[in-house]
Fold this sequence. Notes:
mainly beta
Amino acid sequence: MKSRLLYIVFIGLALSSCRMKEGCTDPAATNYDAEAEKDCQCCTYDNTPKRFEGKLDLTFNTKYFIAPYTIGDTVTDPNNGKLIINNLVFFLSNISLIDQFNNEKKLRDVELFEFANKNSVTVTFDSISSGTYTGIKFGIGVDSIYNNQPPSSYPFGHPLSNVAYNWGPKNYVFTRTEGRADTASSGNFNLLIGYHTGTDSLYRKVEFTSIPIVISTNETTNYSLNLNLDKLFYGANDTIDYKIDYQTHTNPGDPLAKRITDNFMGIISE
């Protein structure tokens, strides 16, 4: 009787040791078991699309006649006058990447760039689909939709909630360039320069497509543009003598605001 009982126990142990481990054997499943020898028909799957995204650092570098320029520094212009640009502020709207099919991938509706005592400003955009983009485009200023809403309509922290750049109750200051000039090289910077542009008619769009922008998954791509501040005065089609035309606040009938706006488009380059 005792021998028979030992035999039954031995057979049970043998059968137990031969039993294959069951589990999910599909590596694509969320509950995949690498040690499973027999599929359990219990695999589960995540049907959420895989996200392949990266980031973009967009940097603007200020220059004056090619040389790096820090806002607040003194430069000598071609007419031997001395100039200090001590404040540079502007809005960009509808910042978008352009794909190979000429579709636009919007990165941000509005962004404010402030350059007090700086020679560069970087803004980071995230959650951008990976791929190669043929260029970038944006508007200088604020488009008519945003421009006709008061700062109070935007949440705290939004670029357009800043009343310092609003002519109230609507209409924003698109670009603000301020400085001082020593026109006689006497060491006396007594000429105050102030160019404040705005209104719907002065909204301008620009596009850069010379350099492809490659966004890689889980990586940050760096892309830089230059702000050639000398071209604000010495534009491709118009030269502005700041000794004579030194201020505009975009008053009705003032042609200088348009001239400054058109030259401002030309200061940005790859």
